[in-house]
Amino acid sequence: MKNILIASAVLIPAALITFYLIKARRATRQVWASFAKRRGLTSHDLWGAGKSRGPKTSMKTKQPNKALQALSAFSMPRITGKNNGFPFELSTLKKGSGNNKVLYSFMKLELESLPTGIHVYPEKSVHKVIKIFGYQDIQTGDPEFDGKFMVRGENPEQVLSYLTWNRQTALKKYSIKIPNLELRKGAIYMERRGLIKKIDELEKLFRELGKLATALT
Question: How many domains in the chain?
C-alpha cells in the first residue's frame, strides 16, 4: 500500500504536467496553423504530410500512424511558402546539449542576392571583448553599424560592395523590430527563445521580414 501511495505521489503530478504541456503545445500548434492558413502557407507535420493552408485548398492529407500522432503532440509543424515573393520558413530548433537544451522559434527568408559566405549578426558583449585581443571583423566605416553588427565574409570587397548605405540603414532599422536578426547562408534569419504563441507576433515578424527582404534587394 505504501509503495502504491509513493508511486501515485510521483505519477499523478507527472501526468498532470504532461497533460498541461500537451494542451499548451496543441494550442500553439493551432495558432501556427491559423497563421499558415491566413497567409496561404504550407504546414509540414512530423510525419511529413504537407498541408496547404490556403483558403481554397483541400484539407485531405495522409493519415499518420498512432505512434507518430502521439509524438506530434509535442512537436511543432514546419511552415513554408512565400513572403513578398521570397522563399519563407517558420520552424523550431534546439540549442545546447543534454539537459541544457533550449527551444527557439526561427523564421528564414531566402535571398539570392546575398554574397557567398556573408554573415552579418548582432554584436554582443563577448564580441567586444575578443576585439580587445585583436580579433577584427569587416568594418564598413559607419560607427553605428559597426557597433551594432559583426560582419564576416569570404570576400571582404564583395561584402562591402553589397553593404551599401541603404542596406546598412535597413538592417539598423529592422534589427530593432526583428530579434536576433542575421544574414547568413543566403538568407535572412531571426530567432527568439521559446515558442511564438501569439498570432499577432507571427504576423508582425512575417511583415517586417518581408519589408526587410524587399529593402535588401
Answer: 1
| pLDDT class of 125 with cuts at 50, 70, 90 | low
Q: Rounded mean pLDDT of 8-20?
A: 49
For the record, the C-alpha cell of 139 comes out as 568594418
State mean pLDDT over 114-126.
Answer: 86
* Backbone CA torsion sign across 32, 33, 36, 37: negative
SS (H, E, C) the chain: CHHHHHHHHHHHHHHHHHHHHHHHHHHHHHHHHHHHHHHCCEEECCCCCEEECCCCCCCCCCCCCHHHHHHCCCCCCEEEEEECCEEEEEEEEEECCHHHCEEEEEEEEECCCCCCCCEEEECCHHHHHHHHCCCCCCCCCCHHHHHHEEEECCCHHHHHHHCCHHHHHHHHHHHCCCCCCEEECCEEEEEEEECCCCHHHHHHHHHHHHHHHHHCC
pLDDT at 167 over 90: yes
| Residue span of the structural domain in which 193 resides | 2-215
